[in-house]
Design a protein that fits this description.
It contains 10 helices and 6 strands; from the N terminus they run H-H-H-H-H-H-E-E-E-H-E-H-E-E-H-H. With 296 residues, the protein is of the alpha/beta class.
C-alpha cells in the first residue's frame, strides 16, 4: 500500500530501559558530567541487556509449559542514531554548549552574597525602583545569521564573509524595569563615516558615545557615564516618583569597575551606593547576564 516507514514492536523492557536511562542522565547532570550521544547509547544498551538478563532469570517454566512452549525472547535492541533521535523527541532532551565561565563559578560565594544582599535590602529599606544593575556586552552589529531556510529545489546557498565589526554596550536598568538608563556605547571610531555624511551630533544620540581602538569600556568611560548619565537620570527618576533619594548600583568586578568607585562619584550623587558582586559569581548572580548571550 505504499508504506515506506516500518516500526518495530516495543516491549515493556524498552519502556523500562528508557525510564532508567532518563534517571541516569539526570543524575549525571547534577554532578556536572559531560554526556555525548555515544555515551548515552552505550548506557542504553547496557541497561537493556541487564533488564533482559533479569527477565530471563525470573522466568520459571512449569512442567506443563516447559515441554510445549519455547521461552519468551525479547526483540533485539540497537542503540542506533535513529533510536537516539526518537528518544530525544520523546523525553525532550537536547544538546547545549557548556560555558567555561559558568563551570568555574563560585557557588559558595554566591550563596553568601545572596544572604548579605538580603540583609542589606532589609536594613536600608531599598525597594525595586531603587536597585539598579549595570553590565557590559559585546555586540557584533554587522554579523549575519549562519543558518537560513531554502526550498527543496535548491541544494545549497552561497556563503558570505563573516563581518566581525563589534561595539560594546553598557546597559543599565532597575529591578522593577520602569527606569532604563541611557546606555554607554564604545566603538573603535570617534566619528564614523555615516556621522560625517549625515551630520550626526553624538550629544543627541540615545547612547553616550565613546571610542577607543579596541572598543572596550575602560574605567575612565565608566566613571564618566556614572557622573554624566546614570547619576542625573536616577536622581530625576526618584524625584518624579516621590521616592527616597537613595540608590543601590550592583556591578561585577570587571576591570572597568575597580573597588572604591564611590570615591570618584560626584558629591551631588552621594546617594548612590555601589555593591560589587564577588569574583566568579557573575553567571549565577548577574541579572544582566542574559544580555551577554544576546549581544554575542
Amino acid at each position: 500500500m505504499g508504506t515506506t516507514i516500518m516500526s518495530k514492536r516495543r516491549t515493556p523492557i524498552h519502556d523500562e530501559m528508557e525510564r532508567l536511562l532518563l534517571v541516569w542522565i539526570k543524575d549525571k547532570e547534577k554532578t556536572g558530567n559531560t554526556l555525548t550521544e555515544t555515551i548515552i547509547c552505550e548506557k542504553a544498551s547496557s541497561i537493556y541487556n541487564d533488564l533482559v538478563s533479569k527477565a530471563a532469570s525470573n522466568e520459571q517454566p512449569t512442567a506443563s509449559t516447559s515441554s510445549q512452549e519455547a521461552p519468551l525472547t525479547s526483540p533485539e535492541f540497537r542503540a542506533s542514531h535513529g533510536w537516539f533521535y526518537r528518544f530525544k523527541k520523546r523525553t525532550g532532551n537536547h544538546s547545549v554548549v557548556r560555558h567555561g565561565e559558568a563551570a568555574s563559578s563560585n557557588h559558595k560565594a554566591a550563596e553568601e552574597f545572596v544572604k548579605k544582599f538580603e540583609e542589606l535590602i532589609n536594613q536600608e529599606g531599598y525597594i525595586p525602583q531603587q536597585v539598579f544593575n549595570c553590565d557590559e556586552t559585546g555586540l557584533f552589529w554587522k554579523k549575519m545569521p549562519r543558518r537560513t531556510y531554502i526550498t527543496m529545489e535548491e541544494i545549497k546557498m552561497p556563503g558570505h564573509k563573516t563581518m566581525k565589526d563589534r561595539l560594546t554596550l553598557a546597559l543599565c536598568a532597575n529591578a522593577s524595569g520602569d527606569c532604563k538608563v541611557k546606555p554607554l556605547l564604545v566603538y573603535h571610531s570617534e566619528n564614523p563615516r555615516a556621522f560625517k555624511k549625515h551630520k550626526i551630533l553624538k550629544d543627541r544620540l540615545e547612547v553616550m558615545w565613546r571610542s577607543n581602538p579596541k572598543a572596550w569600556v575602560p574605567r575612565q568611560f565608566f566613571v564618566e557615564w556614572v557622573n554624566l548619565v546614570f547619576g542625573p537620570a536616577v536622581k530625576k527618576f526618584l524625584e518624579e516618583n516621590d521616592l527616597a533619594m537613595k540608590c543601590l548600583l550592583i556591578i561585577d568586578n570587571a576591570p572597568a569597575h575597580p573597588s572604591g568607585d564611590e570615591d570618584v562619584i560626584l558629591e551631588e550623587f552621594s546617594f548612590i551606593k555601589v555593591l560589587f558582586l564577588p569574583p566568579n559569581t557573575t553567571p549565577l548572580l548577574q541579572p544582566m547576564v542574559g544580555l551577554n548571550d544576546y549581544g554575542k
